[in-house]
Amino acid sequence: MSQRYWQGAAADEGMQDEHAFLWKAMLETIDVDLAGKRVLDAGCNRGGFLRLLADWWGIAEGFGYDPASGAIEDARRLVGQRPLRFAAGDTVPAGWGGFDAAFSHEVLYLLHDLRAHARAILGALVPGGVYYAVMGVHAASPLMAEWHHANVEKLHLPELYDIDGVVTVFKEAGFDAAQR
Fold first, then answer.
1. Entry pTM
2. Beta carbons within 10 angstroms of residue 170's beta carbon
3. I want to staple 173 with a disulfide (CB 3.0 to 4.6 A). Which of 3, 84, 118, 137 is the partner?
């Protein structure tokens, strides 16, 4: 990921408002009770997903990282009294671990080293921990393939991933991976 993806606070605030309904829909599909759990958000942007988890799902602690330092500054400013921590970075920060669950929403297509990401997330989870990654930008989506082609150079995107290939990368890293 790269700082170049962050569009600024105003644009991201609108995006986070739009994402709230998607995040709730995603959470309705998982089979893990997050109450009292430690949660990691990879590519957390301004921390909206973790704020939602703290406010509505009662997580014990939430940790989020994102390469966009401006977004992380906003995330820290918006924490309030919630048990949330944020860091600027491209991967799980050193010393972060013991997570019951990890999430990413539209992050995988931005990563140039998917294998390193899979290993880092697996290493941050407790045994039996789960990782839910939502990925709509992939090779089997004609609209997203067209968007990717038009933006690959401007946004310095990696090649467009095939979902089966993503599952394979995560299995090779040690996950019991599947797609839905």
1. 0.88
2. 24
3. 118
